[in-house]
Amino acid sequence: MTEAVAEPVSSRLSMWLKGTLALAAGTGFSFGLAPFDWWPSLIGSILLLHWLLRGVSVRHGLVIFYAYGVGFYGVGVSWVYVSIHEFGGASILLAGLLVLLFVLAMALFFLAQGYIYLKFFRQSIWGITLGFSAIWVLREWLLTWFLTGFPWLFAGYGLLDT
């Protein structure tokens, strides 16, 4: 008698729905940080990303990671628009375009994180848990010094009461 292996619920979702959920999860991360400080959304955001990656190919996983990154930075760096438009004197269109390009470029860090995780770490239970976390920390560390650093939107900010 053979036993059927249940496929993950997340693997039955369409890729469009997974991408949309990843985008929403990325936006939810920002609500765990100031000025909202609702830390459960930060944890829920990361857990939803992790759940969406179950049973996906590397290609689809990269789409999920990138969509998450676009949502993550799309909401998290909205203040950059204000800086460019209000204080820099740029037009609304130019400021919006610059912020869009900035968000799309910063989301590439999630693409790199996703590639490393999907290629090397999701094959074992240790890789799924510790590898995912270690690569998350590595991405955050890289952002502190690459191109003079961008030390915003780190998970620790929302999880520490300062």
TrEMBL record:
Record keyword Cytoplasm present: no
TM region(s), chain numbering: 38-56, 63-84, 90-111, 120-137, 143-160
The protein, known as: Apolipoprotein N-acyltransferase
Tagged with keyword rRNA processing: no
Record-linked InterPro entries: Apolipo_AcylTrfase, LNT_N
GO molecular-function terms, A-Z: N-acyltransferase activity
Classification via Pfam families: LNT_N (PF20154)
GO CC terms: membrane
Ranges of residues in domain Apolipoprotein N-acyltransferase N-terminal: 25-161
Superkingdom assignment: Bacteria
One GO-annotated biological process of the protein: lipoprotein biosynthetic process
